[in-house]
């Protein structure tokens, strides 16, 4: 054998040893990767659980928000209805606007006083009926 053959043979042996060392290092890296993957699994599972809880919380918040919005609309409608009832009662109780001269003339005549008394009696009767109706509706709504 010539010298160059010995050199190539030595390089072949060195190459084989290097491949063997690389194989051992690759196996060590594979074991280390599996160990790290095992360590990361609980963290990944925990992150997924937190994401699930976040989705549930968002869904609950959406439902609660819709319920609050619906209740606000109901309360607003009820308040508007009561405001309209109050306006109606105020219009019913407020006497019609008249000239100052007409008011003085009506105050002087006894018939005018009687007519005005009857007018107020009618208004108060309507007011009593409206209050009775409103109180029976309110009692029915709270039950």
Model description:
With 143 residues, the protein is an all-alpha fold. It is 93% helix and 0% strand. The chain contains three helices and no strands. α2 (100-108) packs across α3 (110-142). It is rod-shaped. The protein starts with a helix and ends with a helix. The mean pLDDT is 83.
Keywords:
143 residues
Compact description:
By secondary structure, this protein is mainly α. It has helices at 3-93, 100-108, 110-142. The model has no long low-confidence stretch (mean pLDDT 83).
Helix and strand layout, with pairings?
Blueprint: H1 3-93, H2 100-108, H3 110-142
Helix pairs in contact: 2-3
Mean pLDDT: 83
Helix/strand structural class: mainly alpha
Q: What percent strand? A: under 5%
Terminus-to-terminus distance: 112 Å
Shape: rod-shaped
The largest β sheet comes out as: none
Radius of gyration: 47 Å
Low-confidence residue ranges:
none
What is the N-to-C order of secondary-structure elements (H for helix, E for strand)? HHH
Helix content: over 70%
Number of helices: 3
Work out the number of β strands.
Answer: 0
């Amino acid at each position: 054998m010539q010298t160059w053959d010995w050199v190539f043979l030595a390089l072949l042996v060195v190459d084989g040893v290097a491949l063997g060392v690389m194989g051992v290092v690759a196996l060590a890296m594979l074991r280390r990767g599996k160990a790290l993957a095992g360590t990361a699994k609980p963290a990944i599972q925990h992150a997924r659980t937190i994401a699930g809880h976040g989705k549930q919380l968002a869904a609950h918040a959406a439902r609660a928000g819709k319920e609050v919005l619906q209740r606000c609309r109901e309360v607003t409608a009820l308040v508007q209805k009561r405001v309209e009832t109050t306006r109606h009662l105020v219009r019913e109780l407020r006497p019609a606007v008249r000239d100052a001269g007409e008011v003085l003339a009506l105050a002087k005549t006894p018939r005018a006083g009687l007519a005005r008394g009857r007018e107020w009696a009618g208004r108060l009767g309507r007011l009593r009926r409206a209050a009775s109706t409103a109180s029976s509706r309110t009692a029915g709504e709270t039950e």
